[in-house]
Amino acid sequence: MDRTDRDDDFRLGGFEELVLLAAHSLHPEGYAVAIGSLLECEGERAVALGAVYATLDRLERKGFVTSRLGEGTPERGGRRKRLYGVTADGRRALEQTRAVRARLWSLRPQLGTP
């Protein structure tokens, strides 16, 4: 799906942004449990794994991530992990979200000023 002419298609919810950024940070080993663990560690709060899975599914439907099954590992009894990669559209969504945040932060008064 080509989104270049529809900027509003790149909008991300707050948790979507965090999950997408975590997946991008963990590339190529971005799987749901690792993404959730990273969010818990960096965000210093509990993250429901079900919310991570639901968000990854939504991001995949939007075309912001792709998934594939990795190789089975002995630690997992031969079961394979679903690995997530961020697409070009997903990177564009992250950049647009970062730009909006930067513009908003530049408009704020100095912290500590009424």
What does this structure look like?
Helices cover 52% and strands 13% of the residues. It is built from 4 helices and 2 strands; from the N terminus they run αααββα. It has helices at 14-26, 32-43, 49-62, 88-107; strands at 65-72, 80-86. The protein has a two-stranded antiparallel sheet. The chain is globular. It starts with 13 loop residues before the first helix and ends in a 7-residue tail after the last helix.
Proportion in helices: 40-55%
State the total count of DSSP E strands.
2
How would the global form be characterised?
globular
SSE order, one letter for each helix or strand: HHHEEH
- Distance, first to last CA: 46 Å
Instruction: Output mean pLDDT.
Output: 88
Structural class: alpha+beta
Strand order across the largest sheet: 1-2
In a nutshell, what does this entry contain?
With 114 residues, the protein is of the alpha+beta class.
Secondary structure layout:
Blueprint: H1 14-26, H2 32-43, H3 49-62, E1 65-72, E2 80-86, H4 88-107
Antiparallel strand pairs: 1-2
Helix pairs in contact: 1-2, 1-3, 1-4, 2-3
